Structures are given as C-alpha cells and as structure tokens.
C-alpha cells in the first residue's frame, strides 16, 4: 500500500526512547537515528510504532523504544552542588508548581518580586505554573492570599545518582504532555 509508505513531514513527530542496559531512559532520538541504531545492531527494539517507512528495497516499522546492546558509560557516583539555574530550580522543586502542585506550563517566580527588592537566589526562586505566576504577578504572597508548599532554599550537596541521567530527557519526559503511549511501560 503506497499510502502507508508516504514519507510525509509528519514523520518528525516519531521519536525513539533510548534505554540503557538497566532500562533507564538515557536519550530521545529522531525516527531516522532510531532506525539507524536498529539497522546497525547497536540497539534492540522493544516496541515499534504502527508507522511504516520505505527504502528502495525494504519497508521498516519505526522503532518507539530501544535498549542499547552495549554498556553506555556512566560516570562514577559523586557528590555535587547544583549551581543556580532555571533547570536546577525545576529539579529542586520536582517539576511542580510550589503554589498549587500543578506540573504543566511551568515558569520561575520570584517569591519577593524584584520590583520590591527580591534577589535572584535559591531562597527567592520557585517553580510556578503560568496561572499562579500570573495571579501573583509582582505582588507579595500575603496580598494575593497565596502560600508556598515549602520555603525555597539552596539544595544540599546531592548524590549524582539522584539526578536524572540526562536533564534534557528527564525534562522532556516530565514536561511533555504528549508522551507516546508506546513509552509508558518504560518510564
């Protein structure tokens, strides 16, 4: 059926979840890279999408979940101190709004607004959803009758094993509202 082999632009939406030998997510790759990993036998495909792609001589299903067949280097566990960054504030707050516990449309909020002397520091920055951040605006928490789940503070020294293997993968999985159903059993 020629329609099933149509190489339309909508193939870009097909991503492959790559797992290490212990089935931990380590990367998200495009469909072409996922297919190359399978063809080169660098990864074992655990789940396929129902979508087909064609070469001049063969038809392939697009891999959805792949497990690497060889060991992927993982640095030795070590203790580290997180630097102040947007991503690290999200990680400290477990990708949840600190006002309502919502986990979508996240931003960073200054608890004491900059316009009122607030600083850009661990103890003044929290993860907030757009709705709560908009509601609070540049006002004080008391003025809008809002409360924090917990007071923000600088995270203690962390064991590197507590952090996701890849911030990008972790963030994409946690924040993506459209995680493919083929991935669910592996997250």
TrEMBL record:
Source domain of life: Eukaryota
Segments forming domain HNH nuclease: 84-134
Residue ranges the record marks as coiled coil: none
Protein name (record): HNH nuclease domain-containing protein
Organism this protein belongs to: Selaginella moellendorffii
């Amino acid at each position: 059926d020629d329609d099933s082999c149509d190489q339309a632009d909508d193939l870009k939406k097909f991503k492959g979840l790559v797992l290490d030998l212990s089935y931990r997510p380590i990367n998200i790759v495009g469909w072409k890279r996922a297919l190359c990993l399978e063809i080169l036998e660098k990864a074992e495909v655990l789940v396929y999408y129902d979508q087909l792609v064609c070469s001049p001589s063969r038809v392939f299903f697009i891999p959805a979940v792949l497990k690497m067949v060889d060991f992927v280097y993982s640095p030795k566990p070590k203790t580290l101190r997180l630097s102040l960054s947007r991503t690290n504030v999200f990680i400290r707050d477990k990708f949840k709004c600190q006002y309502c516990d919502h986990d979508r449309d996240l931003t960073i909020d200054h608890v004491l607004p900059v316009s009122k002397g607030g600083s850009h520091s661990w103890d003044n920055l929290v993860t907030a959803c757009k709705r709560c951040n908009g509601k609070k605006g540049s006002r004080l928490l008391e003025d809008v009758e809002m409360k924090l789940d917990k007071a923000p503070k600088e995270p203690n020294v962390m064991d590197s094993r507590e952090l996701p293997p890849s911030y990008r993968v972790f963030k994409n999985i946690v924040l993506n509202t459209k995680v493919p159903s083929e991935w669910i059993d592996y997250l």
